[in-house]
Amino acid sequence: MKFFVFLVVLVILGLLEKPINKLLGVEKKKISETPGKKVDRWGRGIILAVFLCALPFVIDADVYVMKWFLIFYFIILFGFQLVLEWKYLRTSKQYVTTFIFLLFGVITMYNIEYLF
Q1: CA atoms 67, 72, 78, 82: torsion sign
Q2: Of 12, 58, 73, 82, which one's alpha carbon is 20 to 30 angstroms from that of 20?
């Protein structure tokens, strides 16, 4: 049942992207088509490496520590994406959608114990 609720939340997020983009007038573009391609790859790689190096210390910790670790990782990853979209895709306003999903994701992760 918990897995089903998780899948429903992911599907809702996926279905909300197009209406939000249409409502805000956002045209979808990719960072990989801009000069920020290298910065995006290196940044995501470094963030992933730091996350994976810190993961063994957090796995043995309390559930709340793990929750805050995942929230922090989510903020760092989407925050990085938000900054790159703002810098390289400013005319498309795609960073607004990323910011909305960042807020929704953090709120959902913070209240995850109430969903399950």
Answers
A1: positive
A2: 73
Q: Are 89 and 31 in contact (CB under 8 A)?
A: yes
Residues 6+ positions from 27 with CB-CB distance below 8 Å: 21, 92, 93, 94
| Domain residue spans of the chain | 2-115
Q: Which of 42-56, 73-87, 102-116 shows the lowest per-residue confidence on average (mean pLDDT)?
A: 102-116
**Which residue is associated with the tokens 């709120």?**
107
Residue 46 tokens read as 């470094």
Secondary structure of 36-71 as H, E, C letters: CHHHHHHHHHHHHHHHHHHHHHHHCCCHHHHHHHHH
- Three-class secondary structure of residue 36 per DSSP: coil
pTM: 0.82
As a whole number of angstroms, the distance between CA 28 and CA 93 comes to 9
